[in-house]
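Sequence of PRK06851 family protein (Pontibacillus chungwhensis).
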Amino acid sequence: MSSIHHHYYASGHTAEGYYRLTDSVLKEISNCYVLTGGPGTGKSTFIQSVAEELKNSDHHLEYLHAPSEPGSLDGLIIRNHNVALVDEQLIKDTDIEHMKEKHFIHLSEGLDPERLSENKKTIIALTKQIQQLTEQAYQTFHASLRAHDDLEDIYISSMNFNEANLLTNELIELFYGKEDVFKAPKIEHRFLGAATPEGAKDFIQQLTQNVQKRYFIKGRAGSGKSTMLKKIATAGEQKGYDVEIYHCGFDPNSLDMIILRELGIAIFDSTAPHEYFPDRETDEIIDVYKRCITEGTDETFTDEIAEATKRYKDKMTEAISTLKDAKHARDELKAIYSKAMDYSLVNQTKDKWLSDFLQS
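Predicted 3D structure, token representation.
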């Protein structure tokens, strides 16, 4: 078996608040190793070190990226062993009772309590500041979503729903044909991307690099892209195909991509903030604006579209800026914990975990 690497988000800062798809991501996992400890205790470094050690071996690795810390990991799934290594925040208040084994790795054992107590007031203040700023970001994302809804309403009023249904049915028949697959489908829910302190991030190119046929959906807000993806996903599930379902990192109720790896197909919303263009001969564009929206809608509602777009973008910019402020406060908090932390214990624990895993 050759190694497989998939990068995505299992959680996100959204218009619905902090949102996790952990229940789906860890659904098949039988052994979950949970890293506990405050910020700066080495949880992400632990996970990244394990990933680095295993990346050239024949494993199916899934990297769960951290929306609060671009470049950091919240988890690693070793899919071919049904093993996961995750930050405790990813499973907090989630249903993982199906797992046969949950193992807690307490990195906080490496903390010097006396050094922490010296900064107790600062720790409390920074923790409160992070919570307030993050909540403020969620409220601003929600305001941005309301502006986006206004933008959608403009295009929905000019939508040819019969044509949209016809296009969807054409794609369903093209992808699946008439035959059903007689097996229980594997359905996985993930996030396409995330709002981070550095702006919107996604892993579309990485996730689709080995997919033979890619469909780039072009259109406008409210032109039926998410609804079409939901119907394609439902049809795949009903026919017995495995479906990777990628939710919007801004509005988790909306879908941005479907991957059907058994069929070598990926279809995704290729508009801002995750706009890409075909760069392979097999890539294809699906223009839902041209197909399903009344011609001249952009021109007819120029002023209304510009006003709603500005409100949406301004609020998004404000929310990202607030996430950045929260990250600065988190960095200060991490620095306090780091000075009180004995990282040799983290390294020893990581080395033992890896040794045990490789021998299992």
